[in-house]
């Protein structure tokens, strides 16, 4: 345990964060020099060209499926092809298709490969292994056949943790978010149990091929029922509970797997078609959550007579509760990384990302900057930290970015908006829906900006210790040794 904690703290060393090692994506920016490119492949060697193209499309499929932006995926595919000697290639990355074509001159037809990208459960370990494989292809002169075998092993490998660990991590994440929203122990326990039920049922539905939209609808329905029933029995049980905190935690868990960051990043960085497709998927899946929540509210009101309390207009950090709420946000980020099968070395930095995001949002609650700007600044800071950590090859920046902003997703705003629309607070409801959309876009845009700054950042010059200070310190050490 002591050794593990030491390694974790070593990862957070500021000197390592600003070191001159670059992330894989940093080395393949447009205009950068290739590292040890192979001898160009003969344009008549169709087999060799096809082998390299197929390898590049497989790598791109894993990256795109993990939520990597289309432009970054395209650049890494071009980089892999260039390292193996294929420089004249055209790459087309869309929402669920990757097509790579290598030109062979004016007299020969091009060679083209295509890969379909299918939805799989999020696995950040797979993403990190692909990142290391690209690094090894760059530095260790792996043959295409060896790289092919390694990609196949990465794709077919089981998850690094059992399903029950991931399920409990989802529950821990919901508990952290409920505390971040102001809940107490009872709310955290109820959020944990509700989320475990949602994840378990949706996993079984996914195994029988149920569309994701209906999984989101059922998840939204389950998120409401336990909180509403407990609230209806609160007077008899002698307890006090805010059901909105439990429901909002469940909504955030359902939203966390969606590619919000990738969609906005695609739209910003020059892939608008892919960005629109991803964003429409996010809206559609969010619509499924809203449908489930709405059906549950109406059903409970019409059959059982349980009416949830009207929505309030503020959620502020109290000076006394600010420390536990910030810690809860960091724990939620760590739990999301664990639930998404991140490597153990990524968990401390995910915790750090969540801590930074929650701290900035909490500090902004004492000012008048507003939720949209506060969340954007927090996401930019998380993206910057993720990018700096990726420069040391600790973990892909996407892992830190997504985990860091997940506790900040506007689950409570979505619930307030929906409840206001269904009730007599229509204007407030639409206002909260618009606020949720603005916060979501602010989070994604902030992460994109932070990663861009980290990618453009040069190694800062650390201040040099004066000679007299070094001599004084040396004399003190010698004096202690003589004693």
TrEMBL record:
<feature type="transmembrane region" description="Helical">
    <location>
        <begin position="317"/>
        <end position="339"/>
    </location>
</feature>
<comment type="similarity">
    <text>Belongs to the ThrE exporter (TC 2.A.79) family.</text>
</comment>
<feature type="transmembrane region" description="Helical">
    <location>
        <begin position="181"/>
        <end position="201"/>
    </location>
</feature>
<dbReference type="GO" id="GO:0015744">
    <property type="term" value="P:succinate transport"/>
</dbReference>
<dbReference type="InterPro" id="IPR010619">
    <property type="entry name" value="ThrE-like_N"/>
</dbReference>
<feature type="transmembrane region" description="Helical">
    <location>
        <begin position="397"/>
        <end position="418"/>
    </location>
</feature>
<feature type="transmembrane region" description="Helical">
    <location>
        <begin position="276"/>
        <end position="297"/>
    </location>
</feature>
<keyword id="KW-1003">Cell membrane</keyword>
<feature type="transmembrane region" description="Helical">
    <location>
        <begin position="246"/>
        <end position="264"/>
    </location>
</feature>
<keyword id="KW-1133">Transmembrane helix</keyword>
<feature type="transmembrane region" description="Helical">
    <location>
        <begin position="346"/>
        <end position="366"/>
    </location>
</feature>
<feature type="transmembrane region" description="Helical">
    <location>
        <begin position="430"/>
        <end position="454"/>
    </location>
</feature>
<keyword id="KW-0812">Transmembrane</keyword>
<dbReference type="GO" id="GO:0022857">
    <property type="term" value="F:transmembrane transporter activity"/>
</dbReference>
<keyword id="KW-0472">Membrane</keyword>
<dbReference type="Pfam" id="PF06738">
    <property type="entry name" value="ThrE"/>
</dbReference>
<dbReference type="InterPro" id="IPR024528">
    <property type="entry name" value="ThrE_2"/>
</dbReference>
<feature type="transmembrane region" description="Helical">
    <location>
        <begin position="213"/>
        <end position="234"/>
    </location>
</feature>
<dbReference type="InterPro" id="IPR050539">
    <property type="entry name" value="ThrE_Dicarb/AminoAcid_Exp"/>
</dbReference>
<feature type="domain" description="Threonine/serine exporter-like N-terminal">
    <location>
        <begin position="54"/>
        <end position="299"/>
    </location>
</feature>
<protein>
    <recommendedName>
        <fullName>Threonine export protein</fullName>
    </recommendedName>
</protein>
<feature type="transmembrane region" description="Helical">
    <location>
        <begin position="372"/>
        <end position="390"/>
    </location>
</feature>
<feature type="domain" description="Threonine/Serine exporter ThrE">
    <location>
        <begin position="327"/>
        <end position="453"/>
    </location>
</feature>
<dbReference type="Pfam" id="PF12821">
    <property type="entry name" value="ThrE_2"/>
</dbReference>
<dbReference type="GO" id="GO:0005886">
    <property type="term" value="C:plasma membrane"/>
</dbReference>
């Amino acid at each position: 345990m002591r050794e593990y904690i030491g390694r974790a703290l070593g990862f957070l060393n500021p000197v390592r964060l600003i070191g001159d090692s670059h992330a894989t994506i940093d080395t393949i920016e447009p205009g950068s020099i290739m590292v040890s490119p192979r001898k160009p492949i003969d344009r008549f060697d169709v087999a060799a060209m096809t082998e390299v193209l197929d390898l590049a499309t497989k790598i791109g499929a894993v990256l795109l499926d993990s939520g990597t932006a289309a432009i970054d995926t395209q650049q890494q595919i071009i980089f892999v092809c260039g390292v193996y000697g294929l420089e004249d290639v055209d790459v087309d990355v869309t929402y669920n298709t990757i097509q790579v074509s290598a030109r062979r001159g004016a007299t020969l037809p091009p060679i083209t490969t295509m890969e379909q990208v299918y939805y799989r459960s999020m696995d950040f370990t797979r993403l990190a292994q692909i990142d290391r494989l690209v690094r090894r292809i760059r530095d260790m002169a792996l043959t295409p056949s060896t790289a092919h075998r390694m990609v196949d092993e990465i794709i077919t490998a089981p998850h690094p943790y059992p399903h029950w660990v991931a399920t409990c991590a989802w529950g821990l994440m919901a508990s952290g978010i409920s505390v971040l929203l102001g809940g107490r122990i009872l709310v955290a326990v109820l959020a944990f149990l509700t989320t475990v039920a949602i994840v378990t049922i949706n996993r079984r539905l996914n195994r029988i091929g149920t569309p994701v939209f209906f999984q989101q609808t059922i998840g939204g329905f389950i998120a409401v029922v336990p909180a509403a029933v407990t609230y209806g029995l609160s007077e008899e049980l002698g307890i006090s509970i805010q059901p909105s905190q439990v429901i909002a935690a469940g909504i955030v868990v359902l939203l966390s797997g969606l590619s919000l960051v990738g969609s906005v990043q695609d739209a910003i960085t020059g892939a608008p078609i892919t960005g629109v497709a991803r964003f429409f998927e996010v809206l559609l899946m969010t619509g499924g959550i809203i449908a489930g929540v709405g059906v549950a509210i109406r059903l409970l009101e019409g059959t059982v007579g349980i009416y949830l309390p009207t929505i309030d207009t503020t959620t502020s950090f109290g000076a006394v509760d600010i420390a536990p709420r910030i810690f809860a946000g960091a724990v939620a980020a760590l739990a999301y990384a664990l639930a998404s099968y991140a490597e153990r070395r990524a968990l401390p930095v995910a915790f750090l990302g969540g801590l930074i995001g929650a701290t900035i949002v909490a500090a902004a609650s004492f000012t008048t900057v507003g939720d949209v700007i506060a969340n954007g600044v927090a996401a930019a800071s998380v993206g910057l930290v993720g990018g700096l950590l990726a420069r040391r090859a600790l973990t892909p920046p996407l892992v830190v970015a997504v985990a860091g902003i997940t506790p900040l997703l506007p689950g409570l705003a979505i619930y307030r908006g929906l409840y206001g629309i269904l009730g007599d607070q229509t204007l407030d409801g639409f206002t909260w829906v618009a606020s949720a959309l603005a916060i979501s876009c602010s989070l994604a845009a902030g992460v994109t900006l932070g990663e861009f700054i980290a990618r453009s950042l040069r190694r800062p010059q650390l201040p040099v210790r004066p000679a007299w200070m070094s001599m004084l310190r040396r004399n003190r050490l010698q004096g202690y040794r003589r004693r």
